[in-house]
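User: quick one, fold this
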Amino acid sequence: MAIRVMIVDDEWIPRHTFRTVLSDTPDIEVVAEADDGTAALEQLRTTGVDVVLMDVCMKPMDGVEATRCIRASGAEWPRVLILTAFDADENAFAALRAGASGFLLKESSPSEVVTALRTVYSGDAVVAPSLTRRLLDRFVPLLPAEHRSVPETLEVLTEQELRVLELVAQGLSNVEIAGQLTLAEKTVKTHVGHIYQKLGLRDRAQAVMLAYKTGLVKPHNFPERAG
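Assistant:
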């Protein structure tokens, strides 16, 4: 079955561009469009959607508030993938905290958009190392103390799980982690699942934030990647 996508953006050109890109992908179907968060929520009442490709800056309801409303419903679907025009957009970070499964630059290539949608649909999160590093470096220290003080939860992880979490927080995929640790991809996926379960995490986005807030990973630990 095709991944059912809704595109939410207050500008027609980005919506048309993404629709055009996705229309050439057999396993993705654009089933709805909306020009702000309110319209998106209204359509979601009657349209089955797997992933919402959500712009941040819209009126009257922006992408952060719309994401919060979607995730507050308690339903597993749809997942939200945030679109941002800037690689240090504080609203994108706020959207992650609201429950989005990742963020994507509007200037991303068609292949990056398609890969991101598939990743979010599979239940994982889109965590671009360079964007994540800058966002967390800038905004985590600004969180209220009660959000930054994390219990000593990392003690429940094994040494191998800690290493996997560190690499997850650096933006590596399961395949890349498997190669670096000389493990089977299935084993890495199992470790990641245990990490989520033990730490009460939803996905990679939350794992990155937790690793950063506990000091397991610091800004200079994030690798720069070409492209």
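User: anything notable?
Assistant: Residues 156 and 198 are 7 Å apart (CA to CA).
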